[in-house]
């Protein structure tokens, strides 16, 4: 498929290169482990999702920290310290309202909702900093956080729910409207934003992917430890 893409560049690759989101996706897919995704190349350092023994307490820590991360991303594009961040407002991928509803549901079930903890708070701080000082790095995190949630994230949600929530589907994993259309709209906006970046800026964005995996991995760790 890669060869075909190179031979028949799509409209977004103005210089005959592939659309930038495909570059971001390729780097991200390689950072998966072989048991996570077919295109993964990393050796697993954590147990595969099927072997997780999640607890409600751990899952709640994950949801609370995830809510903080999404709220931070949503506030950053709302504020738009960098004017073109405004393109990424109201994409339909926003998750903080859905997480708010889920946490309210847990509270009504009698669970205590924890405060955000360091994996979430340190990630939120990093995102704030990058959004002002390093837009290319920020966009890498923006892409990975939202797109990871729709692929592996949904699979994780399903498995955890089967094991500890009697298959309840959380709002976190439901999107209003056609998800693939929402994703495609955001891919187009990302390609558009990156079309004015130099090759160095693009590479800088791609290099941030590893950090994005490390920080998101810190959140996921709540579920399986
Ligand atoms: C896509 C699994 C963690 C970022 C995917 C796909 C799977 C997957 C099955 C779809 C592959 C395909 O389209 O053929 C998992 C599992 C994870 C995990 C099981 C952890 C247990 C992560 C993390 C990140 C991430 C931590 C980054 C923060 C992405 C991205 C895509 C993706 C950007 C591409 C989505 C798209 O093109 O629409 N993942 N993943 N994933 N994942 Fe993950």
Unique ligands: protoporphyrin IX containing FE
Fraction of residues in β-strands: under 5%
The CATH homologous superfamily is named: Heme oxygenase-like
Average pLDDT confidence is 92
Give the helix level as a range of percent.
Answer: 55-70%
Biggest beta-sheet profile = none
- Report the uncertain regions: 1-13
Order of helices and strands: HHHHHHHHHH
- Please give the CATH architecture: Up-down Bundle
CATH topology: Heme Oxygenase, Chain A
Structure class: mainly alpha
Please write the CATH class name.
Answer: Mainly Alpha
Task: Describe the overall structure.
Helix content is 62%, strand content 0%. The radius of gyration is 18 Å and the shape is globular. The chain has one domain: Heme oxygenase-like (Heme Oxygenase, Chain A). The protein contains 10 helices and no strands. With 225 residues, it is an all-alpha fold. The structure holds protoporphyrin IX containing FE. Residues 25, 28, 32, 36-38, 49, 144, 147-148, 150-152, 155-156, 183, 212-213, 216-217, 220 line the site of protoporphyrin IX containing FE.
């Amino acid at each position: 498929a890669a060869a075909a893409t190179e031979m028949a560049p799509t409209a977004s690759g103005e210089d005959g290169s592939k659309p930038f989101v495909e570059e971001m996706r390729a780097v991200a897919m390689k950072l998966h482990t072989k048991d996570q995704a077919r295109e993964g190349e990393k050796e697993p350092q954590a147990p595969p999702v099927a072997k997780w023994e999640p607890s409600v307490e751990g899952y709640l820590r994950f949801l609370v920290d995830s809510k903080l991360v999404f709220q931070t991303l949503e506030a950053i594009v709302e504020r738009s310290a960098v004017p073109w961040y405004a393109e990424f407002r109201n994409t339909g991928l926003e998750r903080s309202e859905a997480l708010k509803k889920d946490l309210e549901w847990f509270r009504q079930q009698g669970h205590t909702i924890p405060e955000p903890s360091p994996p979430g708070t340190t990630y939120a701080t990093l995102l704030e900093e990058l959004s002002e000082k390093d837009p290319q790095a920020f966009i890498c995190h923006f892409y990975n956080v939202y797109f990871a949630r729709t692929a592996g994230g949904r699979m994780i949600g399903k498995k955890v729910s089967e094991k500890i929530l009697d298959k309840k589907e959380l709002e976190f994993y439901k999107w209003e409207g056609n998800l693939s259309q929402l994703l495609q709209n955001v891919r187009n906006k990302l390609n558009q934003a990156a079309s004015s970046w130099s090759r160095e800026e693009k590479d800088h964005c791609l290099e941030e992917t590893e950090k994005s995996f490390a920080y998101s991995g810190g959140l996921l760790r709540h579920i399986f430890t």
